């Protein structure tokens, strides 16, 4: 494909009619983000994708340029990515909050918020049971009376969060940071509960228990 794009015919006429700049460099109107992994593959024979690069986008570029040697590997990555539950974001959480009727419990159980930034959000009373919250940032959030039953909160950041009355039965809190959090009974007299939770290397420095 690159040969076809650069081949000249009848003097200066180009088959693809590509534009050139003042130095004669040819403009290829394709995504540089998706082409970069292919360029590196052509350099050293290995496909390396950064976390933020979509395998589907790189596959589309490989198909366009006719780089056959990498297509099988990219197809496997696309299938693997499609079968993996997508991690939700702060924007998703805010959308859920905005769509919840006042006075009703926010229901988020079983969702994937791994590495999501949920800091300083008012999630009071939310049902986060069975959620994936690995490495999520919940610092400064209002988590009063939240349900975290069997949630995976390993390596999550709860620093300075209000966790009064939080229910964390059998939650995984391994290596989580819970510095300066409040785990007292809530105004509704609901006592915070961490019964059966895993607290391996959890940092509870200066927390109110």
Automatic annotation (TrEMBL):
GO biological process, one term: protein homooligomerization
Protein name: BTB_2 domain-containing protein
InterPro entries according to UniProt: 5peptide_repeat (IPR001646), Pentapeptide-BTB/POZ_domain (IPR051082), SKP1/BTB/POZ_sf (IPR011333), T1-type_BTB (IPR003131)
Coiled coil, from the record: none
SUPFAM superfamilies: Pentapeptide repeat-like (SSF141571), POZ domain (SSF54695)
Top-level taxonomy: Eukaryota, Metazoa, Spiralia, Lophotrochozoa, Platyhelminthes
Protein's organism: Macrostomum lignano
Organism superkingdom: Eukaryota
Domain Potassium channel tetramerisation-type BTB: 15-70
